[in-house]
């Protein structure tokens, strides 16, 4: 695995400061039932990092103390963490809106047969990764059989009401480019997804989010191995759009890793960049219970051009 932080750290990206906190994004661990080529977390079946119950309780205490409106749960496959359902239930009881970043095929794993029903019963918003509506592209990026497994999972979610008009159960899909390219326009690609998935499989969803692949971890290492890293960075820099600076996710979000350590965003977490408090690498969520982060500086590096290139990219898709 090639380290990409040394290639990103010296940057001319403009300084950013935080606004009011809206979302706490929590990585419950790097264990996953898939090993995707574009994964910026380097997640997979062999990873053993899993958030402990004590840290989950820290998250719940922080949600209550901070008044953050949203809990964005990610991984790995966060559903494989034994405390996932406990976190969902307790956060919902606090009145927090819960989002689950789901790879879809986890719904087909042993012990997860009732996952769709559980998510629906707690009114969890599902943000599901589906990097293309064509099987060859999905299987090429995520592994053989993933496309068919994803279609089965989407049908199960639809059967619970997800993505159906009037149900109130939100199902959003996520697109990542297969290679070192920027995503196409989000609105037109969403129309293509909607037409193909409904015509061929009867599948419905609410929205499509397009995300730019970040030059870090597994994807970044692949770029280095293929001699494409500098070319990709130049593509991101050339497409830089300053208007996106006002809407990047790090202004209103904090990212918490599986050990309870705090970062400005999920990408900074994977790079080990400084925490939003400015107090160094040892800051945990429990250290910030009484801290207002509004106005604090955000740690930036060259990968930030990925969020601001072209139409922009965030956890909620194009900016």
Question: Percent range for helical residues?
Answer: 25-40%
Query: Mind describing the biggest β-sheet?
Result: 8 strands, mixed
Radius of gyration: 19 Å
Overall mean pLDDT stands at 91
CATH-defined architecture: Alpha-Beta Barrel
Class by SSE composition: alpha/beta
Count of helical segments? 11
- N-to-C SSE series? HEEHEHEHEHHEHEHHEEHEH
Keywords:
11 helices, 8-stranded mixed sheet, globular, 13% strand, 319 residues, TIM Barrel, alpha/beta, 10 strands, two-stranded antiparallel ribbon
Give your account of this protein's structure.
By secondary structure, this protein is of the alpha/beta class. The chain has one domain (5-308): Aldolase class I (TIM Barrel), CATH 3.20.20.70. 32% of the residues lie in helices and 13% in strands. It has eleven helices and ten strands. It has helices at residues 5-8, 53-66, 84-93, 115-121, 135-142, 146-159, 186-201, 217-225, 229-238, 266-271, 305-308; strands spanning 16-17, 23-27, 70-74, 97-102, 125-129, 171-175, 207-210, 253-256, 262-263, 297-298. The strands form two sheets. An eight-stranded mixed beta sheet has the order 7-6-5-4-3-2-8-9. A two-stranded antiparallel ribbon has the order 1-10. The longest helix has 16 residues, at 186-201. The model has no long low-confidence stretch (mean pLDDT 91).
